[in-house]
Model the fold of this input.
Amino acid sequence: MADIEELLTDTPVRLAPAAAIRARGDRRRTGRRVAVAVVAVAAAGAVGLGAWAGLVVPDESGGTDVATVGPNPFLSDGVVQTPDPSELPGHEVLRWKTVHGEPQDEADVAPLPRAGLGDTCALWSADLDGPDMQYTQVYVGKDGARARYRVSEYGTRAEAAEAREQLDVTLVGCGVKRAVGEPDGEYTGVTRDTGDQLNVTVTSWGAWVAVEEVQLSDESWDN
Done:
């Protein structure tokens, strides 16, 4: 077989017409798409609907979205689950209690990317559209300690991802450092404006985002 130099020098090379090359490429791409479709259908038939869990499908925004595997961890029988006070960090010392009734502070139920209870993080990073649904539970503890758990459902995974990313910017701008994960994970630090200790855990599932915040005043976290 002639090497590359021979093909470029001594041996004449006759190229196929452009139309023929395009037609050949179209046939190959069509063949590949058909082959992929056949494999996917065969796999689904072999193991049931679970085989489709990782397929890429269009979302409402016209992009692509990956189906989420497993049941929604934030719901049980269609009801949003919130932590029991005893499950919050430091319960043995802070003795968390659930706050019932209407919230006294509008910031307590503010959507992402707002962070911190009250005005501890007065500035946030962007004006995002609110979630389709948000469930908020507020807790109080010893020496002015406060906690909040927010579960938000967005219209698409892309909207949920944007909310997480902007929350990350808000927390870092407030002086709270990312401890684990980006943007899901844990954050901890002392807020710039109020000097409160703020610990935040962010978890997500599909278009759902859950944020747990524990905020300690000087009196509570010095003890």
Summary: The chain is about 25% helix and 25% strand.
